[in-house]
User: Fold this.
Amino acid sequence: MMNHKRSVFYVSLAFSLILIGLGAFIPDKLETFSHSALSFIYNNLGWFILGAVFIFFSFCMYLGFSKFGHIRLGDDNDKPEYNTATWVGMLFSASIGISLVFWGVAEPVSYYISPPMGPGMTEQSAKTAMQYVYLHWGVSAWACYALVGVSLAFFQFRKKLPSSLSSVFYPLIGDRIKGSIGKWVDVLVVLSIVIGIATSLGFGTLQVNSGMHYLWDLPVSIYIQIAIIAVVTVIYIASTISGLQGAIKHLSNLNMLLAFALMGFILFAGPTQTILKVLFQGIGDYMQNFVSMSFRTEPYNDGSWIANWTLFYFGWWIAWAPLVGSFVARISKGRTIKEFMIGAVFIPVLGSFAWFAVMGGSAIHIIQNLGEVALADAVKTDVTSALFKFLDYFPAPTLISILAMVLVMVFFITSANSAVFVLGMVSENGNPNPSHVTKTIWGVVIAAIAIVLIMTGGLTGLQSALVATAIPLSVLMLIMCYSTYKGLNEEVKATTKVKRSLKEKVGRLRKPIFTETEKS
Assistant:
């Protein structure tokens, strides 16, 4: 069956439809199963997820700053397709943009109220909150994306293999990437992308519905949420059909402008000095405690905080890695591995840190320094409304809340654009320009799964579905590290051999002519 030309598409579509069917007809059993799977992962394999993510980061740093750093992702004379600013904007908005808007206020305040250690709602818990926010959105997250991105870009553009994730295993299994093994890898990748982007759509929908309720008293209901998903789906399918150069590029640039506008408004209308102090303090605490936080498992208590937050986030990043990595690879042709690692790991991290300092730092300041405990209660009650309650403390709250909702919608459209594009590529055996029919089908499937996930368990159901895909993917990514190292090492050896051969040739040409005659 897996030898059919479109087998990846048919098999992954069948699994997706089974998931939709289970959610539609036996939602209670699906919810129970997803929670059981999540508990099993947290209790038995949490250490594995933490260790894997640390290895991904270490490996990315090794690639970027070793003998491999000079290798170009493409031919030696290839130049980058996009300028650096557009490139960073595209990878940022296609990956975590929508999540930043959702969690910007809710996450730091949640940690401040209920920190991983010590009592809540204190000066110390405020500092700890920012430190752990930076762990969850720092280099560990972006290293998961960068690993997949650099591996795929190297094999796709340098070695001229198809743009499917199975290509990165070529040094290990050779031409078998075109057979059943490679196709099952691609099926796993497709399913993780579908669940990951559907989860993101679910989060975004819940937040937009909450904003509409807060601003215009529209009810928070499944019918409103289905309507929101339907509208967004029509927009992202239409825009993805217009192609990568058009819609995705312009929407990414619009995204960044809207995000900077909102962030700049809060920075200057809010406690500017406190925000800057939060940013510097948070980065310092994060750098100082990076290793200990990365390996924290809480073996002597129930470990629920680490399970609900750190493991959830690290599982999230792993589950999203095939999607964001594939998209980042697609837009990174012509860059060296060193340029790629600096651009894909460190620059977006600084953007994330600034966002949380502005949004989360301001929110904690309002509660801790100004005594507005109502904001903490609002976050505790409903994280989806946290952003809108927070914006009430600033001038023109209605206008700014509408801007925030537009930002969520546009961020989601860019994420879904890139997801549908990558799904099309993988399910058409690495076709860099997939057909509109394939992209449209995946767009509709993503929307259907998002509706099912919302119906079966709200936020917790979404989290369970996402993290469950992280274990098989992290095993795959660890194998990917070895395969990529092997491929790069062979590339360096081949390049060195060519250079040595050229040097010898030049050396012979410089010798007196009679030595050449003697040789002949």
About this structure: The first helix runs from residue 7 to 25. Residues 6 and 428 are 6 Å apart (CA to CA). The radius of gyration is 24 Å. The chain has a mean pLDDT of 87.
